[in-house]
Specification:
7-stranded mixed beta sheet, 7 strands, globular
């Protein structure tokens, strides 16, 4: 007689779980629109994840947010929904780019971009040259001013869209509603 009770309890517990949200597919976006100083060759060079020409990281110009991630990084995976909702509001007001690091190949990064619904440009560090530039570990998020200077570096995952909005206003002076 205990078996029917266990079945009922099991059904009740599983029916209370939160469904996994469906994410619209992302797109591997070209990097030609990313603001840069064409005369700068500072920092390591990275290629665009779509296979087009990359740039030297020191050439990036803001206002910009650079999110450094890897498809193998669980904390990176956790923060991507925050960047998706942020980008939906911030697109056209601020540049958001990603830098994919420590991947076995660019296809792993491309798959991650599509699977996670990312729709902003992403660079790919084929030779892991950016490690010394960004520092050890991911995720890390940089806030870059118009002159290319790093105004703030957030080490670790972005915990919420509110945190991302607050950091953008504090360090880049841009309020996004």
């Amino acid at each position: 007689m205990r078996k029917p009770h266990l079945l009922i309890v099991a059904l009740l517990l599983t029916s209370c779980s939160t469904p996994t949200p469906v994410v619209a597919p992302g797109k591997v976006v070209g990097c030609e629109s990313v603001p840069r100083d064409m005369n700068s060759s500072e920092g390591p060079s990275v290629e665009c994840l779509d296979g087009s020409q990359g740039l030297s990281l020191g050439a990036l110009r803001g206002p910009m947010i650079v999110n450094v991630w890897g498809s193998w990084c669980t904390a990176c995976l956790d923060e991507i929904p925050e960047f998706r909702t942020f980008y939906a509001k911030a697109q056209g007001k601020i540049t958001l780019v990603g830098v994919d690091v420590e991947e076995p190949n660019p296809d792993a990064g491309r798959t991650f971009v599509v699977d996670q619904g990312m729709t902003w440009p992403n660079f790919y560090d084929r030779d892991n040259k950016s490690r010394g530039y960004f520092g050890m570990g991911v995720p890390v998020t940089w806030f870059i001013g118009q002159d290319g200077k790093v105004l703030y570096k957030k080490i670790g995952a972005i915990a919420s869209e509110v945190e991302l909005l607050d950091l953008t206003e504090k360090y880049l002076g841009i309020k996004i509603a």
